[in-house]
Amino acid sequence: IPDSCPACEGAAVMEKDFLVCQNSACNAQVGAQLLHFFNVLGNVDLFGPKTIEVLVKNDVLKLEQIYQCDAEQFEAMGFGQKQASNLVEQLLRSRTELVEDWRLLAAFGIPHLGRGDSRKLLAAYELNELPNLSIEQFIAIPGFGEITANSIHETLKARWDEIKGILALGFNLHSEEIQEIEESAITGKNIVFTGSMSASRDEMKEHARKLGANVQSSVNKKTDILVIGEKVGAKKIEKAESMGTSIKTEAEYTALISGE
Predict the structure, then answer these.
(1) What's the chain's Rg over C-alpha atoms?
(2) What DSSP designation does 131 have?
(3) Is the dihedral of CA 204, 206, 208, 211 positive or negative?
(4) What angle do CA 7, 13, 16 make, to 5 degrees?
């Protein structure tokens, strides 16, 4: 196992199953973070791997730098005149089109704060309240454990200046209304959906949330139900079984929430 990052030669350490570069200034990490931001934000085109590669090569490594670039600056990096103009238009579009506040938060790639947990967090608190929250307030949110809460708390404080700088650009943010939860057989249950379903998995997750379930991204000791569709790996099922998780097919799950 190598002990250094092949991109920056910084120290690399095993974290669970992955070898992780410890250099936060590593260009490969920076590029991945920028790509993650635009992918998750979801309302901007043209900022794919090739564009990000050019930006990183030109030492444009921060989101604020990118948003402050004009067409001439993009052209100076090697983009064509039309492409440079389109990049500026897309950045404007990403700020002016309506976008969910939880999606913007998730786009920063904060560990343990993906789309689902960003959604839960901003259902409980407003975005501008986050740097002032205590660890206890994080832990009180359903689905946030002590380790997760500590990590999110520390990272938000460390990166808040960066986040505040992006918010100052004037994104057109939308906060989701908290919907009334229907009582059901899965209210309060931790659920994971995996495999190909007859319906959209995102729609199934959203419906489960409306029924009071806590939708998780992967199975852990707290998972109550694993709903499986087609083409599910045997290891996922074995892991769920070893943790005592109830495994249900899509048909069995549908019957459960229908009260049949």
Answers:
(1) 21
(2) G
(3) negative
(4) 120
Which residues, other chains included, contact 126 with Cβ-Cβ below 8 Å and sequence gap of 6+?
Answer: 175
Number of alpha carbons in the 13 Å side-chain half-sphere of residue 23 = 16
pLDDT of residue 175: 87
pLDDT of residue 135: 92
Measured from the Cβ of residue 59, the count of other Cβ atoms closer than 10 Å reads: 11
User: Taking Cα atoms as reference points, which of 107, 41, 30 lies closest to residue 65?
Assistant: 30
Q: Is the distance from CB of 115 to CB of 130 less than 8 angstroms?
A: no
Res. 30 pLDDT band, cuts 50 70 90: very high
Whole-angstrom distance, CA of residue 91 vs CA of residue 103: 16
pLDDT digits 0-9 by tens, 119-172: 889 989 999 999 999 999 999 987 788 888 999 999 999 999 999 999 999 999
Instruction: Indicate whether 177 pLDDT > 80.
Output: no
Q: What is the DSSP string of 141-192?
A: STT--HHHHHHHHHHHHHHHHHHHHHHTT---EEPPPPPPPPP-TTTT-EEE
Q: Are 133 and 150 within 8 A, CB to CB?
A: no
Q: What six digits make up the tokens of 138?
A: 């994080």
